[in-house]
Design goal:
Arc Repressor Mutant, subunit A, about 5% strand, 5 helices, two-stranded parallel sheet, about 110 residues
């Protein structure tokens, strides 16, 4: 059985390039929609930043993290833009356009 962090990493790996998910979406997939902060903690200590694309996770308003663990919010913005995600200069992603549709997610929490 996977622990919570392993589940979080499993689902973050499924976010497609060019899309974002919210902390709440990942928490929901893990089986507890109240785990949003835990998702943030897990991503902050991401053991494999080149494998687990934590830069694709934003808050419920589409805002990038000011404490992005691997170079700050400017790095998160750049990584998202490199994947074709439009991010405003103040770090907001249009969730209507770029939010991940979880229907294709392999859910088995």
């Amino acid at each position: 059985m996977m622990n919570t962090y392993e589940l979080i990493y499993k689902y973050v790996k499924q976010i497609p390039k060019g899309k974002v998910a919210t902390y709440g979406q990942i928490a929901f997939l893990c089986g507890n929609k109240r785990l949003s902060r835990v998702v943030g903690y897990a991503l902050h200590v991401n053991p494999e930043p080149y494998v687990i694309p934590c830069h694709r996770v934003v808050n419920k308003l589409g805002k990038v993290s000011p404490a992005f663990a691997f170079g700050g919010e400017n790095m998160q913005i750049q990584l998202l833009r490199n994947e074709g995600v439009e991010v405003s200069d103040d770090g907001i992603v249009d969730l209507d356009k770029f939010l991940w549709d979880m229907n294709g997610c392999k859910y088995d929490a």
